[in-house]
Amino acid sequence: MSGTSSSAPGDFALTADPVLSRNALVRDENLRLDPDYVRDSWPKARVVVVDDAGRTPVDWLVRPGREFRETDAAAWDDAAGRDGRIRTRAGLDLAAAPPAEAVLLGESDGVPYWAMRADTGKTADSDVFAGEQGEWADLRAAGAVLDPLGAGLLTGAVATLNWHDRARFCAVDGTPTRPHNAGWARICGNGHEEYPRTDPAIICLVHDGADRVLLARQPVWPEGRYSVLAGFVESGESLEACVHREIGEEVGIAVSDVRYLGSQAWPFPRSLMLGFHAIGDPEVPLRPAEGEIADALWITRAQLRAALARGDWGSGPDPADAADPVAGPVVMLPGRVSIARTMLESWAAAGG
């Protein structure tokens, strides 16, 4: 069922780490369990404050947005990984001791980092960041331009805080729970502990082993926006079995030579995207799943490169592109914050 082999056609590897897998933060469970460390870390802590929409104050030199086109590629390259920084606050500016709902994320260069929710309704104009400049942004908007520390901090903060929001009652007896172990567990009055959940999902780049790649579009996406196929892992299912099942369900073809590429967190609200590639046959008719896939198509490597060159966030249909036989269908592709973008760029770079 795994379909792996040592001589799979068209084999390739990721050319870069997925954006949200970058992390300069040291996690240590022993620190979370040490009450002295938890107490003493707060006076020197920096805190990531996240609002109910998953946003935190961000400083950047290049602001992400759909207005960016190919001419901005150099600016994006200059910004990505260096010039996007989240704004943290000193722990003592927010509270005299770690609030019950705060989460100890870890350390970097000896600095403890925590995360906590902003009070409901607080924004950049509120007293949380009074007098400071900056714009509140979420991971989808800012993830691609955050430095590795900021990417790790915000990804971890959003994932754990989302879990806390949804785990306020015990799954065993239904009684209320409270935070435990510096935010890395919740415990009810009867002593039942629960830990942050992560929902695994596969995301698979299907290609023909040569020069064509399969893209698909969800019904809720704008016309022309495409990506690779993905789906959640079911209970009792292996990752490889999930790849076979999801591809078959979504576009009606069988795949072989399933190979792992890499992973990244996708905390919307708490997923882990596990990237694979697999071989499919372009001669088999595609049967998009009604209600799940609006359209699916095969494009060449040259056509994918043309789509990638339109910019990190994609551009609208351009008549000049549509008339170009090399460019082929005008498609918009995911931004760099998604592992799908890394997978597509890596496959495009692997060919001659």
Automatic annotation (TrEMBL):
Pfam families: NUDIX (PF00293), NUDIX-like (PF09296), Zn_ribbon_NUD (PF09297)
MF terms in GO: hydrolase activity
EC number: 3.6.1.22
Swiss-Prot/TrEMBL keywords: Hydrolase, Magnesium, Metal-binding, NAD
Cofactor(s) required for function per UniProt: Mg(2+); Zn(2+)
Keyword Hydrolase attributed: yes
Family the UniProt entry places it in: Belongs to the Nudix hydrolase family. NudC subfamily.
Classification via Gene3D superfamilies: 3.90.79.20, Nucleoside Triphosphate Pyrophosphohydrolase
Protein known as: NAD(+) diphosphatase
Entry-linked InterPro entries: NAD-cap_RNA_hydrolase_NudC, NADH_PPase-like_N, NudC-like_C, NUDIX_hydrolase-like_dom_sf, NUDIX_hydrolase_CS, NUDIX_hydrolase_dom, Znr_NADH_PPase
Catalytic activity: a 5'-end NAD(+)-phospho-ribonucleoside in mRNA + H2O = a 5'-end phospho-adenosine-phospho-ribonucleoside in mRNA + beta-nicotinamide D-ribonucleotide + 2 H(+)
Plastid is among the record's keywords: no
Domain annotation Nudix hydrolase: ranges: 196-321
SUPFAM superfamilies the record matches: Nudix (SSF55811)
